[in-house]
């Protein structure tokens, strides 16, 4: 495994506030990471999941090392990635720890299954992905976790949940595709026909 850590040669010129402001402009897909077994479980809402490679199937997620899920990911060596649908905002909220919910309490009110790894997977997720930890890079406040995909379950739903400028945003493929087609493709509804123009 190659790893190159370079010394940073230019002093930091950007404030934390400015950087946060820039990152607020980045639209992220909302997922819930889960880890642990039985009652020794926890999870957290994240937007930092992204694909690493297709062959082999791997993904990465950045996890704050202060988060309650972090020791479970490290100890068990497995985790679940649950990509949320647009109507699962309540689940996203529970997994931020809102209202003081901790560990197994966050899982109440939704259906969970397990596959090979034993990590909880959300039955109604847009995609539920079972992962084994392949590598961990602990850097600054966070750990970059590389997950090797063991198994997955896909939903037939077409409405995803995103997060942008501090707010949840629903993306509905059917509705938004129609809207996009109207503005980007000059079709019958966007350009009046010669007869309609008369
Ligand atoms: C939309 C959204 C995205 C988040 N993305 C991340 C993330 O990618 N990585 C991370 O460490 N925390 C992320 N968080 C914060 C965690 O959800 C939150 O700190 C964690 O669930 C609470 O930690 P606890 O389990 O220690 O209570 C995000 C929060 C929200 C609301």
Concise synopsis of the structure shown:
The chain is of the alpha+beta class and 198 residues long. The protein has five helices and twelve strands.
Task: Characterize the structure shown.
The chain is α+β, with helices and mostly antiparallel strands. It has one domain: Pnp Oxidase, Chain A (Roll). The protein is 20% helix and 39% strand. The chain is built from five helices and twelve strands. A seven-stranded antiparallel β-sheet has the order 3-2-6-9-10-5-4. A three-stranded antiparallel β-sheet has the order 1-11-12. A hairpin with a 2-residue loop joins strand 9 and strand 10. It is globular, with a radius of gyration of 20 Å. Bound molecules: flavin mononucleotide. Flavin mononucleotide (FMN) binds next to strand 3 and strand 5.
Short key terms for the protein model shown above:
single chain, 39% strand, Pnp Oxidase, Chain A, 198 residues, three-stranded antiparallel β-sheet, binds flavin mononucleotide, alpha+beta, seven-stranded antiparallel β-sheet
How many strand elements?
12
The distinct ligands, each listed once, are: flavin mononucleotide
Provide the succession of SSEs. Answer: HEEEEEHEHEEEEEEHH
Reading off the top of the CATH hierarchy, the class is best stated as Mainly Beta
Oligomeric form of this entry?
single chain
Strand content: 35-45%
What structural class do you assign from the helix and strand content?
alpha+beta
Total DSSP helices:
5
Specify the biggest β-sheet: 7 strands, antiparallel
**CATH architectural label:** Roll
Query: How far apart are the termini?
Result: 69 Å
Query: In which order are the strands of the major sheet placed?
Result: 3-2-6-9-10-5-4
Q: What number is the mean pLDDT?
A: 91
* CATH fold annotation: Pnp Oxidase, Chain A
Rg, alpha carbons: 20 Å
The helix fraction, in percent, is 10-25%
- Total tally of structural domains: 1
The low-pLDDT segments are 189-198
Coarse shape:
globular
What is the H level of CATH, i.e. the homologous superfamily?
Answer: Electron Transport, Fmn-binding Protein, Chain A
